[in-house]
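Example 9 (inverse folding). The structure is encoded as follows.
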């Protein structure tokens, strides 16, 4: 943890640079720009606040405006033209700096929370990271019912329609979402466009532009069809005569920002909406909480999705001002991806609900298809709220609520829960009172609705793990806005919910790819100093989660490492054995070598009975395993067999060899086939090892780097994004390195003797590295590093391979880096895309890797530069079959020839498949690196 002074100075520097890069004004509250919502103790003077901020930021090039006249204590501070490239933890640090400087109640950044995963995204980007992750544990492969009306029928909406005024006529359902697009199933008459709004771009046009590349364009179209599609269509909404008020406030339902959603809620109040349907969610937001209170006080019924694919109930469904919906399937069984917990009020259909779907590639036609997610359970229930209001009459319902001195929301919630049907074995602790029953709801007279409790006691979250209960508690305490035991939940509640939600996903390999921040978040000093016990437990678990979530490889046809065992042409290199390591042999020959390797490993002093048993078990199954794999090229193997194949590869020719005191551990080397190879040039290897270091932030392992010039190291751009903030806008990009970023050349990554401070970024590839690997993006960065630390001298550079043809040939190589604890990229089954921590556990039991220290991994180029999909233009990516893990990002890839010159920069990979590296010679030829940088590197064309 950085000292307070350091943290504040960096936050101030970051904010001032953001303001310097901002330009002009902006209409609305656009996505993806840097923005903070400032909550003052009382209504601020806008002009005075502007003067204060100008002094703090050193510029007046920012946009400051009220969030909404209904919430006079809230102002929105945004920086037009400055994209949100800063990691969420640093945005929270900047927000807390503003909170202290301005004396605010709270200051919350819009971070683009991805807590609300959207399984329906698979229809658009089935190979995208969020889709591949959610498919494994969230998407149901069950066949959709043949009846397209099954979902409204399951909640007996069809029977409720037969009752007087039971179709929602005259009721307005506001829908904050992505907006709407035309579709044959959506009559224009079902929308009230005079009351519509576009919060993002400004104005009143709620049109969804269906932008390609977002996770689920058309989401608002789909959910609105579930609310109010008319009777004559293929599908029917739950309220076929209600009107929908579309409010465009999100571009992508899985990217959640507090400010535009809060404003959308307030817009719904201002146009007298009766129901607000929100199929979205994220972390706690003070502005949304205040907007919900306004909506409920105005007589609105607010129905919110509990969440998808994360387990616990997300915000604002977790707010007591919301009615939270979980999801079920056609058999009344909870949908596999639904969030659950004591905050859930009721459940409704969420699996294979037929919706009107629009996509960017549909040529404007649209289709009707089954959708999955609590989004649709929410839309159905919003429609039920509308037919309840139309049946009894809006005025009559409000009069009844007034007579009881309760809000309409509570009256409806009580009636909804009272009439919900409970299937046999229903768990009310997790999925609410039951499944929505519209017929019984409308048949329950207003006067017979039980009185809602005056106060709602938070139910103990049973049926959840201890970790999930802690997360639920953090969200509840954040919403309380209390000061408890010296901790200010109003000030730190949003950050606390972000940290708790991050820990839940980052600590779970199946969900780690869904986090907002690839770098493990560090709390602000004010939060950590007074964190209550529940938050201390969250932070303690977070400390043991992976430090960096690497970009995920999404090649459409991943290559199995099984091919490493297939027959190949033998290669003889001068100076080494004519029998090179790991070339295709018979199953018997592989078994003989496996037996020899296992005996050597079992004879090491660090061998444990468990690892010895695992290795012997592997040997006993190896013959059968090899025969099965040879039959279908490895594609017929289950995950355990694929993990065993990976083990065979590592044991018989692709080991990860520990480096100790500048040399390969002799005992480890003796257990491999590479002993003769690496005895040829030990001094050359030692010189290479001395120039490769571990990149750390706050002493925590982030990646690997290596020396490429005087005071210069090379690593990946995605590692750079973890230790520095890129700020770009009206001027050239500026990178601000965190004050506690270092590179340590010690083999163990320990001590200070070989540790050097990273000072500034010199160059980075021009494209931000997203969640998935994109071969067209240069994942390379160069940093200036201090060259003296008072204890040792900075290493000299390593020579580079200048011949581009080398990267376009299947040459042998070695990778030197610092493997970290496995993240999702190491845990995903390439055949099924299922994420299993069993894979890493199984391999770890066999090998016992010592994470965070230097390793050498031999291998060979598999796919030469220019042969991979998406690498036809630059021809600067090759794949290799060395053993690498998370933390090896930024490792040097050296050619296996004299002096081990650097051939490439490793940037991505997965167990059981392949690893990827940039050919440095091809990068030189690409023209992407400025001439001045090339000169400093000593690179010549």
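The amino acid assigned to each position is listed next.
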């Amino acid at each position: 943890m950085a000292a307070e002074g350091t943290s504040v100075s960096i936050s101030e520097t970051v904010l001032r640079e953001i303001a310097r890069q901002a330009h002009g004004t902006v209409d609305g509250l656009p996505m993806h720009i840097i923005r903070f919502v400032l909550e003052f103790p009382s209504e601020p003077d806008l002009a005075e606040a502007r003067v204060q901020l100008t002094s703090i930021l050193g510029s007046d090039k920012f946009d400051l405006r009220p969030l909404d006249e209904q919430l006079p204590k809230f102002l929105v501070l945004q920086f037009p033209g400055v994209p949100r490239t800063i990691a969420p933890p640093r945005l929270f640090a900047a927000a807390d700096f503003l909170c202290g400087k301005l004396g605010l109640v709270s200051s919350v950044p819009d971070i683009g929370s991805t807590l609300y995963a959207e399984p329906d995204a698979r229809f658009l980007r089935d190979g995208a990271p969020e889709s591949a992750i959610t498919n494994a544990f969230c998407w149901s492969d069950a066949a959709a019912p043949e009846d397209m009306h099954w979902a409204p029928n399951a909640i007996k909406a069809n029977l409720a329609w037969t009752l007087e005024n039971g179709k929602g006529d005259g009721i307005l359902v506001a829908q904050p979402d992505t907006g709407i697009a035309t579709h044959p199933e959506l009559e224009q008459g079902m929308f009230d466009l005079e009351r519509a709004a576009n919060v993002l771009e400004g104005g009143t046009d709620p049109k969804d532009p269906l932008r390609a590349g977002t996770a689920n364009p058309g989401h608002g179209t789909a959910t609105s069809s579930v609310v109010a599609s008319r009777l004559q269509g293929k599908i029917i909404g739950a309220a076929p005569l209600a009107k929908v008020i579309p409010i465009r406030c999100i571009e992508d339902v899985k990217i959640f920002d507090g400010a535009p959603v809060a404003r959308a809620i307030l817009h719904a109040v201002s146009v007298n909406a009766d129901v607000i349907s929100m199929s979205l969610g994220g972390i706690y937001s003070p502005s949304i909480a205040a907007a919900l209170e306004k909506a409920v006080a105005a007589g609105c019924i607010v129905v919110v999705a509990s969440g998808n694919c994360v387990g616990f109930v997300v915000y604002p469904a977790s707010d007591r001002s919301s009615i939270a919906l979980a999801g079920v399937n056609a058999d009344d069984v909870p949908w596999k991806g639904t969030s659950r917990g004591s905050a859930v009020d009721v459940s409704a259909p969420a699996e294979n609900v037929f919706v009107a779907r629009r996509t960017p590639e549909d040529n404007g036609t649209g289709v009707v298809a089954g959708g999955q997610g609590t989004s649709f359970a929410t839309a159905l229930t919003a429609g039920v709220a509308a037919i309840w209001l139309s049946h009894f009459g809006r005025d009559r319902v409000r009069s009844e609520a007034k007579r009881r001195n309760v809000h309409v929301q509570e009256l409806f919630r009580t009636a909804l829960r009272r009439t919900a049907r409970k299937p046999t074995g229903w768990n009310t602790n997790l999925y609410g009172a039951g499944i929505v029953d519209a017929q019984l709801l409308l048949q329950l007279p207003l006067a017979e609705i039980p009185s809602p409790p005056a106060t709602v006691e938070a139910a103990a979250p049973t049926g959840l793990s201890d970790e999930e209960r802690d997360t639920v508690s953090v969200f509840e305490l954040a919403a309380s806005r209390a000061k408890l035991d010296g901790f200010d939940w109003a000030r730190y509640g949003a950050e606390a919910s972000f940290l708790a939600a991050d820990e839940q996903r980052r600590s779970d390999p199946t969900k780690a790819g869904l986090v907002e921040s690839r770098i493990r978040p560090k709390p602000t000093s004010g939060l950590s100093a007074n964190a209550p016990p529940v938050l201390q437990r969250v932070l303690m678990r977070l400390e043991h989660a992976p430090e960096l979530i690497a970009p995920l490889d999404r090649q459409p046809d991943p290559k199995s490492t099984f091919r490493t065992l297939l027959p190949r042409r033998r290669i003889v290199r001068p100076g080494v054995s004519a029998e090179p390591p790991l070339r295709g042999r018979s199953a018997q020959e592989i078994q003989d070598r496996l037996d020899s390797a296992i005996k050597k490993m079992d004879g090491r002093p660090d061998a444990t009975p468990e690892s010895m048993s695992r290795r012997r078990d592997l040997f006993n199954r190896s013959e059968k395993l090899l025969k099965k794999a040879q039959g279908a090229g490895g594609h017929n193997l289950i995950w355990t067999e694929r993990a065993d194949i990976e083990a065979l590869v590592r044991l018989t020719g692709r080991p990860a060899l520990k480096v100790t005191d500048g040399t390969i551990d002799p005992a480890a080397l003796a257990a491999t086939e590479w002993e003769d190879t690496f005895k040829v040039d030990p001094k050359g290897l030692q010189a290479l090892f001395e120039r490769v270091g571990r990149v750390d932030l706050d002493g925590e392992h982030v990646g690997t780097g290596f020396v490429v010039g005087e005071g210069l190291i090379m690593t990946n751009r995605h590692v750079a994004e973890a230790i520095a903030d890129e700020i770009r806008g009206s001027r050239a990009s500026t990178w601000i390195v965190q004050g506690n970023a270092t590179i340590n050349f010690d083999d163990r990554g320990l001590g200070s003797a070989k540790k050097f401070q990273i000072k500034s970024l010199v160059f980075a590839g021009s494209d931000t590295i997203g969640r998935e690997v994109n071969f067209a993006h240069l994942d390379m960065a160069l940093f200036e590093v201090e060259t003296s630390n008072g204890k040792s001298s900075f290493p000299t550079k390593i020579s580079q391979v200048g011949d581009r043809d080398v990267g376009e040939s299947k040459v042998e190589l070695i990778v030197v880096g610092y493997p970290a604890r496995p993240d999702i990229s190491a845990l995903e089954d390439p055949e099924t895309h299922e994420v299993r921590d069993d894979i890493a556990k199984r391999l770890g039991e066999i090998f016992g890797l010592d994470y965070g220290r230097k390793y050498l991994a031999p291998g060979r180029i598999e796919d030469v530069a220019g042969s991979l999909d998406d690498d036809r233009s630059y021809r600067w990516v090759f794949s290799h079959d060395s053993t690498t893990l998370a933390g090896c990002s930024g490792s040097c890839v050296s050619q296996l020839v004299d002096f081990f010159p650097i051939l490439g920069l490793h940037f991505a990979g997965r167990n059981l498949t392949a690893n990827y590296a940039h050919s440095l010679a091809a990068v030189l030829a690409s023209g992407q690196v400025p001439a001045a940088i090339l000169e400093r590197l000593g690179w010549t064309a």
